[in-house]
């Protein structure tokens, strides 16, 4: 039996129930093999995922941890791990992963591409935990659905009417404000999420001219006519959507999460640092910003914003399990260099596979113990203070920021 020098801290990191403040739906049983399982520890795609990802330290570590989770021997290969999990009943696998993860409540962004076709509804995650599943609304998805309705009459070759009068832009802005307000009023909705980082970058402008918005809308319409698809990837419109969401969120006192830093190959990394958000943070002081994914590799930028602005919080998810163990510890050290410890929150960024929630929780708990134990050993924190950091990071801060207890009392 391993003896830990700080048993109270180890007990807290191992057993503290967690609020997962940012995750996504899981695949339904019939689609459990629809995506390469290597995605559980890598954001890559193609051969970079299926051939190369297992050779990362993160991939090797995940192999060992999943083998242990499934009750397999040390030294089990990745291919053997995959074959074994294919034989486990999906419901049993989900129950095992969430129980071992210690997740009590999960906040689900259900706007991830493919969720509607392959995944269970977000609410169904609640059956695997003591608490519940709440919803995070992805604002770009809401905006794209609205644009499809508004632009529908304009897509046929003989359609009449102009997008240049300002009428369509104003209609879009008014209706989007109404839709997001309705969402914010829903007791199951606890926050908004923006993926502007993926589309045009987080350097969100403070204003866009009517001409810029009309030109962007015309480009959206051209693509819609050619492809039948609407994808919001035009800076004047994307930035407008973000500003509307921030205004509504401030009015309804719900946070807005921003993807920053690490992501798949759609990301333009130079536009993903949260430092670009500084102007918009100052422009919306009543709105709570949650910077996601430790903003890796821009963690120090995020820490600065969290320390300097009362309305900014930092999530330190996704680096678990996508970054090596030492990298995770270094990220957490950078989070703690400047961020107030009552303003950091854990998430799994779990998606598709129940193991992604387990690995995200298990590795975060290990890193919290190892990094905080260093501070206790050096006398920078008492063990009691370190335990409080853990309780805040895994539970209390998310409960407060997303007003979960308040919402539960209102429901009762």
Automatic annotation (TrEMBL):
PANTHER family: AMIDOHYDROLASE 2 FAMILY PROTEIN, NODULIN 6. It comes from Cyclocybe aegerita (Black poplar mushroom). GO terms for molecular function: hydrolase activity. This is Amidohydrolase-related domain-containing protein. It comes from the Eukaryota. SUPFAM superfamilies: Metallo-dependent hydrolases. Residues 243-404 form the Amidohydrolase-related domain. Pfam families: Amidohydro_2 (PF04909). InterPro entries: Amidohydro-rel, Metal_Hydrolase.
């Amino acid at each position: 039996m391993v003896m830990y020098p700080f048993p109270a801290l180890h007990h807290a990191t191992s057993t503290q129930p967690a609020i997962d403040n940012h995750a996504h739906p899981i695949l339904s049983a019939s689609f459990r093999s629809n995506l390469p399982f290597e995605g559980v520890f890598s954001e890559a795609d193609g051969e970079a995922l299926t051939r190369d990802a297992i050779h990362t330290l993160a991939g090797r570590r995940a192999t060992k941890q999943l083998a242990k989770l499934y009750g397999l021997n040390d030294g089990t290969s990745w291919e053997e791990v995959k074959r074994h999990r294919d034989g486990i009943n999906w419901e049993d696998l989900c129950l095992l992963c969430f129980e071992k993860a210690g997740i009590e409540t999960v906040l689900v962004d259900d706007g991830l591409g493919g969720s509607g076709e392959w995944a269970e509804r977000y609410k169904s995650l609640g059956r695997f935990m003591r608490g519940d599943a709440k919803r995070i609304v992805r604002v770009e998805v809401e905006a794209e659905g609205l644009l499809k309705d508004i632009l529908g009459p304009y897509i046929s070759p003989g359609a009449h009417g102009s997008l240049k009068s300002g009428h369509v832009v104003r209609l879009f802005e008014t209706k989007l404000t109404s839709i997001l307000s309705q969402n914010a009023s829903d007791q199951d909705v606890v926050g908004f999420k923006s993926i502007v980082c993926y589309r045009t970058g987080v350097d969100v402008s403070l204003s866009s001219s009517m001409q810029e918005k009309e030109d962007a809308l015309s480009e959206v319409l051209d693509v819609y006519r050619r492809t039948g698809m609407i994808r919001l990837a035009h800076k004047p419109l994307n930035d407008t959507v973000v500003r509307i969401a921030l205004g509504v969120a401030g009015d309804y006192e719900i946070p807005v999460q921003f993807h920053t830093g690490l992501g798949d190959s759609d990301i333009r990394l130079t536009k993903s640092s949260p430092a670009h958000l500084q102007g918009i943070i100052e422009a919306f002081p009543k709105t709570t910003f949650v910077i996601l994914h430790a903003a890796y590799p821009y963690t120090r930028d995020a820490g600065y914003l969290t320390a300097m602005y009362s309305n900014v919080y930092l999530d330190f998810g996704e680096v678990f399990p996508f970054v090596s163990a030492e990298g995770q510890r270094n990220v957490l050290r950078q989070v703690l260099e400047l961020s107030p410890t009552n303003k950091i929150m854990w998430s799994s960024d779990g998606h598709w596979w129940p193991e992604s929630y387990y690995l995200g929780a298990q590795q975060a708990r290990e890193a919290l113990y190892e990094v905080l134990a260093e501070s206790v050993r050096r006398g920078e924190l008492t063990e009691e203070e370190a335990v409080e950091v853990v309780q805040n990071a895994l539970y209390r801060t998310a409960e407060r920021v997303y007003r979960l207890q308040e919402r539960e009392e209102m429901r009762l």
